[in-house]
Amino acid sequence: DQQVKQNSPSLSVQEGRISILNCDYTNSMFDYFLWYKKYPAEGPTFLISISSIKDKNEDGRFTVFLNKSAKHLSLHIVPSQPGDSAVYFCAASAKGSARQLTFGSGTQLTVLP
Amino acid sequence: DGGITQSPKYLFRKEGQNVTLSCEQNLNHDAMYWYRQDPGQGLRLIYYSQIVNDFQKGDIAEGYSVSREKKESFPLTVTSAQKNPTAFYLCASSIQAGVYEQYFGPGTRLTVT
């Protein structure tokens, strides 16, 4: 029973264009969401996060949007660069349970030069 | 400079042997976590520790054991009872339990034949 789902295992985008990575969740107790970026054979690195009291958070080229009614969040990367090519995981956290993170299965983003 | 160290990067063992994966952090973080990643899947939580001498099972703790005798160290033992031990293992830490962002080590690729 996957509580956090990333339905697109891969995405290819041209350099300079927008990349949109999507994530859906089922647990209504989740109130904090994070995106991590991961290169092969390395640990994930934290990218950006959003609290459920907001619907948008922006950090440079990265923006995360949260639609609570649809239980959906998305990560926008504008403009996309070849160095952005990596696996992107969304993760969600609920109050209590020591703020454990529940991860999606990841989306491989490839930015084509 | 501060960070999380996992060693070794690659580990090979014969079936039926226990193996211990190392995780050390010098970030002065209270909470530490162990995850497992399999191809095409997200990170799944094995064990976590909120404070020294305390740890709790995650979603897939069967066949694993941990200890937390020192704040900076959280070793994971993969026992012979773990049915599918071959995987990429990631250690993470956060300032304290209840803080959202977790910081990850580089990971250990364990192969059991």
Short account of what is shown:
The complex is a heterodimer of chains A (113) and B (113). Chain A is built from no helices and eleven strands.
Layout of strands and helices, then pairs:
The complex is a heterodimer of chains A (113) and B (113).
Chain A: E1 4-5, E2 10-14, E3 19-25, E4 30-38, E5 45-51, E6 56-59, E7 62-67, E8 72-77, E9 86-94, E10 101-103, E11 107-112
Parallel strand pairs in A: 2-11
Antiparallel strand pairs in A: 1-3, 3-8, 4-5, 4-9, 6-7, 7-8, 9-10, 9-11
Chain B: E1 4-7, E2 10-13, E3 19-25, E4 31-37, E5 43-51, E6 54-57, E7 64-66, E8 76-78, E9 87-94, E10 103-104, E11 108-112
Parallel strand pairs in B: 2-11
Antiparallel strand pairs in B: 1-3, 3-8, 4-5, 4-9, 5-6, 7-8, 9-10, 9-11
Our estimate of the beta-strand percent of chain A is: over 45%
Quaternary structure type: heterodimer
Question: Which class of secondary structure composition applies to the elements of chain A?
Answer: mainly beta
**Fraction of residues of chain A in helices?**
under 10%
What's the helix-strand series of chain B? EEEEEEEEEEE
Dominant shape of chain A: globular
